[in-house]
Specification:
InterPro entries: PbH1
Shape: globular
Protein name: Right handed beta helix domain-containing protein
Number of strands: 62
Number of helices: 1
Helix content: under 10%
Distance between the termini: 55 Å
Strand content: 35-45%
Structural class: mainly beta
Largest sheet: 15 strands, parallel
Length: 627
């Protein structure tokens, strides 16, 4: 049956369910659903386009919604293939309905969805777009009842301020919130707001998850737009976060990635999460990655497995909680389960003004703490560089056995524990999956540790251990000299490997890049390899002029694959030529059988380049390689 509008169609009482297809490219109407049957409203997907929908143009639309679901409605509501971009109001306000499903739609502006019913709100493959970082808006999704499930959706370019504001807000009597494979990018979170905000303890379970191939992602803006809010802010008692990335963001004042404030008995789980390149500026107040205030009175279980915390810097106020991670609770003599357990986690290159650069546990009660097969490297704090713990545990309850399957290559001291006035210091073993190199003279036998570095890279990488846990820790060779002179010629790497700066930060908080040169005669390249997955990070490559001879005389890097198991990733490196008026060389990076710089595309190998500089050179496009 054809009808000129939805309202007329919804008045029909002839069927148990309604399946309505909008055949026009644009539809102007506000819709009020009071049916006890199921209703499905679809844009015209047959033409491969969403239907543009908006309310009457004679209204300013503020406070109005395209679709209103009445409290008398008890059926399932499905809305799909909709484009709402030219309407100042919201999209769906539901006080009823057994369930609401929105899928494959694009919605612009804030105040998009109000969910005020005990039913389920399902969001699938939708895109929510704000009005830009300078225009504050209401939440994209505001739920006061029921449960919320959001899958494969994107939330971006929104600006939010105040408590109970952000991309997704669960308050009132909401019971559960699940987010799966979503992206939260390019948003501005001001004070009190968050990408995911759970403000009610009735929302017992918060699940944020992804898969190895489709992770949930949270990222912020550039350093000029620090975030005063959070990515996740919750009071849920059961929190599960897995396969999630928190990356490339700067925070200020009360902002950080994850804030947990829980006064119930709580269970917190993080599995395969990645916290990378997060910064807190000089007026920051909370630990950069995770700041949690838990209940000693009721107990807590905090468990993390296979997580990475790398390049996270806290430059804010000097205090206990100025670290990458802080777990705190008030003192209590009550018997309760209190456990903190990190298994095969990686903490590398984290800086803080807090007591522990990577990790602080500050609980006023007994707490069982274990770090199992975890790795610490290049961390820096004011008291201990890796872990600082204050509790009421005796030395027999908290000692090196709680950490002895873990490793550290941070500057000592690694771990400090405090019980009232008694302080203990522990240092961990060198990790055999990491090697340091330096040409400085030492009087002891070299073993590849920071204090006893090997002399050459070529002699080092065959000695790397690829079986010790954490097996997910990338095997790395750190260069400790500002000038590194060596050629790796005609080599292959049996396993994935990283060459990286092991130097300290400069005055701007950036890692100092060693300058890699090759002054020995007879080499046409600095690195020439055939197989393996190689990453170059925070390095600088130069040609040199030795008595009128350019070395190396052809290129800095040459890749000649002998099979398909080859990959080159370059992160934050500088490649210097000899100037447009200087001597000529063939290439900076030469790679045979390459089709693209960023993906293999049926070629023999991949070269990925991120955040790099190519200076003092001219570029020629040769052999039909795509730049």
């Amino acid at each position: 049956m054809k009808s000129p509008n939805l309202t007329q169609t919804l008045e029909q009482e002839l069927c148990n369910s309604l399946d309505i297809i909008l055949t026009e490219s644009e539809h102007l109407e506000t819709i009020h659903i009071m049916k006890t049957t199921s209703v499905k409203i679809s844009g015209n997907a047959f033409e491969g386009k969403r239907t543009k929908i908006l309310g009457p143009k004679e209204t300013d639309a503020k406070g109005e919604y395209i679709i209103t679901v009445d409290s008398t409605s008890t059926g399932d509501i499905i809305v799909q293939n909709i484009d709402m971009r030219e309407w100042n109001g919201g999209f769906i306000s539901s006080d009823g309905g057994k369930s609401i499903l929105l899928k494959d739609s694009l919605l612009a502006g804030g105040g998009t969805i109000i969910h005020n019913t005990d039913g389920v709100l399902n969001i699938q493959s939708d895109e929510f777009i704000g009005d830009g970082i300078n225009v504050p808006i209401d939440p994209f999704i505001f739920a006061t009842k029921g449960s919320v499930n959001i899958v494969s959706s994107t939330f971006k370019k929104g600006s939010f301020k105040g408590d109970r504001n952000g991309c997704i807000v669960c308050c009132g009597t909401v019971t559960q919130c699940t987010i799966d494979g979503c992206e939260f990018i390019e948003n501005k979170f001001n004070s009190g707001s968050a990408a995911v905000s759970v403000t009610t303890p009735t929302c017992i379970q918060l699940i944020i998850k992804g898969t190895p191939s489709k992770r949930t992602k949270f990222s912020g803006l550039d350093m000029k737009n620090p975030l005063n809010g959070n990515f996740i802010k919750t009071v849920s008692s059961k929190i599960s976060i897995s396969y999630a990335d928190f990356v490339d963001s700067t925070f200020t004042e009360s902002g950080n990635a994850v804030t947990i404030n829980e006064q119930q008995a709580s269970e917190i789980s993080l599995i395969w999460c990645n916290f990378t390149n997060l910064r807190t500026n000089s007026v920051g107040q909370f630990s950069t990655c995770i700041n949690s205030m838990l209940s000693s009175e009721n107990g807590f279980q905090f468990n993390a497995e296979y997580c990475t915390f790398s390049d996270c810097r806290y430059s804010g106020l000097s205090q206990v909680s100025g670290n990458a991670i802080t777990i705190q609770s008030q003192s209590s003599d009550r018997s309760a389960v209190r456990t903190i357990r990190f298994t095969e986690c990686i903490f590398t290159n984290n800086r803080g003004n807090g007591y522990g650069g990577a990790f602080v546990v500050d609980v006023g009660s007994k707490c069982t703490t274990n770090f199992i097969s975890s790795f610490f490297n290049e961390n820096s704090g004011t008291e201990a560089n890796d872990i600082w713990i204050r509790s009421t545990n005796s030395q027999s309850e908290l000692n090196i056995s709680n950490f002895n399957t873990s490793y550290s290559d941070s500057v000592q001291s690694h771990i400090i524990t405090i019980n009232e006035e008694q302080e203990s210091t522990y240092n961990l073993n060198h990790f055999p999956g990491v090697i340091f190199v330096s040409n400085k003279t030492i009087s002891v036998t070299r073993d590849g540790s920071r204090d006893k570095p090997y002399l050459k890279i070529k002699d080092s990488f065959p000695k790397l251990n690829y079986t010790s846990k954490p097996v997910n820790m990338p095997r790395t060779i750190y260069i400790l000299d500002e000038i590194w002179d060596e050629s790796l010629y005609d080599v292959s790497f049996a396993n994935s490997l990283i060459f990286k700066s092991g130097l300290n930060d400069d005055s701007m908080g950036n890692i100092i890049k060693p300058t890699w040169i090759t002054t020995a005669a007879g080499y046409n390249t600095t690195i020439f390899y055939h197989t393996g997955y190689l990453t170059l990070e925070s390095l600088q490559f130069n040609f040199t002029n030795v008595s009128g001879s350019i070395r190396p005389y052809d290129q800095l890097i040459w890749i000649q694959p002998t099979d398909l198991t080859i990959n080159l990733t370059i992160i934050s490196c500088i490649f210097n030529g000899l100037g447009v008026d200087g001597n000529s060389v063939k290439y900076l990076i030469a790679a045979q059988l390459m089709k693209r710089m960023s993906r293999s595309d049926n070629a023999n190998f991949t070269v990925q380049v991120t955040g790099c500089t190519f200076d003092h050179c001219t570029v020629n496009n040769r052999d039909n390689a795509e730049q």
